[in-house]
Structures are given as C-alpha cells and as structure tokens.
Give the backbone structure.
Amino acid sequence: TTLWQNSPKIRGAVYSTCGTQDVYRVSLEVLSKLINRARRQSPLRRQNPPATSAQHAHTHTRTHIVAPHAALPTMEAQNPLRGLAYGAISSSFAEIVTLPIDVVKVRMQMQGADGTRQYRGLTDAAVKTVRNEGVLSLWKGIQPALVRQVVYGGLRYGMYAPIRNMIGVDANTPKDQIPFTKKFLAGGLSGALAAFIANPMDLMKVRLQVDGMKGEPPKYRGMTHCFRTIVAEEGGLGFWKGSGPTMWRATVLAAVELSTYDELKSQLILHGIITPNTVSGVLVSSFTTGFVCAVTSSPFDVVKSRVMGQPICPHTGKGKLYTGMADCFVKSIRNEGILSLFKGFLPNWARIGPRAVLCFLGQEVLNDFFSPNTQH
C-alpha cells in the first residue's frame, strides 16, 4: 500500500501495462483505503478500559481465552455473491503484486523441456528477463491474468463455503468443529471447477509469459492477438490445452490452501498461539499454508506450464514436445529426473506465500468492513 501510494512510476507502469487505468486504479485505491481503515479499527489500536483488580488478577492466570463455540474470524462472506466479489477483488490485487515472481517461475519451469538451459537460478532468470526484454516484461500476461483472477479467484474463494455446506456441513457449525475432510473436499471441488472455466485465460497468460524468453522475436503482440492466433492455429478447443494438469493443480492447491488455512488458523486461535483479527495471525497462517501448497502443487504446476507453454505446430495445432499431461510427466522424469517436477520451487513458494497473505487478508478486510454488524 505504501509503495503504491508513494510511487507514481509504479502506478504508471501498472496503468500502461493493464491498459484500462480507471478500473485498476479504483480497485487498488479502494482496497488501500479498506486496509488503512481496518488498521485504525484494529483492537490493538483501541484504548482498553481500565481493568478492575479482579480482572487484573485474572490476567495473570490466563491471558487469552477462546470459547469453544466462539465465532472465529473468517474469510467467508455473508452470501455467495459477496464471496465471489471479495474473492475476485483480493485475488486480482494479489495477482498484480506477485506477477513478476510468477513470470520468473514459469520461465524456470519451461527451461530444459527442449534440452536447453537459459537460467542458472531465480536471480539470474529475473536479471536476464529485465535486461533482455525490459522491466515491464515481468508483468507479461497481466491482462489475461487479471481476467482469470476475476473468474478463477472469484469462483474458487466464493464457492468454497457454499460447496462445503452442500456436502453436509451446517452453515451455523463452528469452524473448529467442521471435519477436515469436508473442508479438503470442498476446496478441491471449488478449485477444479474454477480452473476448468478459467483455463483459456490461464493458457494465454502462460503463452505470453514465455514468449521471447530465448531471445526470439515475440510471437504475440498482446492478449487480443494471442487469442486470435490460438483460434486460427488450434481452434476453439485449443483454449483447453493443459486443462488436465491445470485442474489437478487447482484441486490440490485449493484443497490444501483453503482447508489448511482454515484448519491451521482455527487451531492456532483455539490454543492461544495467535490472536484473532491481527495481521500477524494472518501472516503466520498464510506463509505456513503457502509452503504446504508449494510442495504439494509443484509437480502439477510444472507440467501445466510445460504443456501450455510448449511450441505449437501451426499446421496441426498440436504441441511439439508433449501430447498431454501423462506424456509430459514421463518425459520430464525420464530426461531430467524426478526433481525436474520441482523446478521453480522457490519462486513458486515466494509467490504463493505473499499471494496467500494478500488474498486472505483482503478477504477478511472486505468481510469485516462490509459486515452488517461492523460499525464504521
């Protein structure tokens, strides 16, 4: 927020890359104001009433009490439509901030697929990308990425609670009493559904991110040109290339991210390790969740990037390297070893961690600010 407010060059770069200045300016500035207002209303900043002697004595025996059925802070909205909107806003904001890491991650995952190697590591990939293609190359694919987040982020976060309730969870059940298996299943289903619907945007994002990474002239002039080229060379069904690993990745990622965050945060609060409604509580929960997500989703993420980003034969519309998810798994392990499925792990975690923080923090800020029980 501070960088955004005080850095006109950053704002100008984002505006010029996005193309539609007003939409992103308003959404970012609104979220900035919401975070600032939530910070001012934080319990840590409020003046606590003077404690009585009995209360003072009680604080020495137990400093933090959470009732078994207390209403825990949540990222769930009051209704599905609000959940979709909050998920789309927070996911889009997180996408803008973390996209440079994603560009580096995808390029590191792609190298070696054709037997060549361009980068020695995370720093080398970032430096060469900026030096050869300019600083704005770190935001390649921003337009389809944002469209994808409106669809994917909105559905994944917004449909989590409704699906969880549809599989037998009462909406009034305290979160710490909901079975972990049902949280996991609801997260996986919402992620798979959202990923399949948003696959065309994901495909265009990956294609634009790897375009020109080997020094060749860029194939695409932007999102619209990429869309037209895919239709011309691969047909309408070409937009669902890589949907298999994309859905598996999303299933694992959403199931682990949503259920682990939910479960981890509830347990940490119940045991008094973190304090509800604090940024530190969200940070601890989110970064821990991000590591688990990176470990479990990396193999599918690598295969997704390779199947989507591989060169396409203009005559047949088929990939030149892989025929599908299984073929990519087999060839990657056979030619580069099992660790090839974890290429780009560090930028993957470096992106998932902050992105999870921004998404979950944004969700909770929006839910708290627009809650009918909140006084502003």
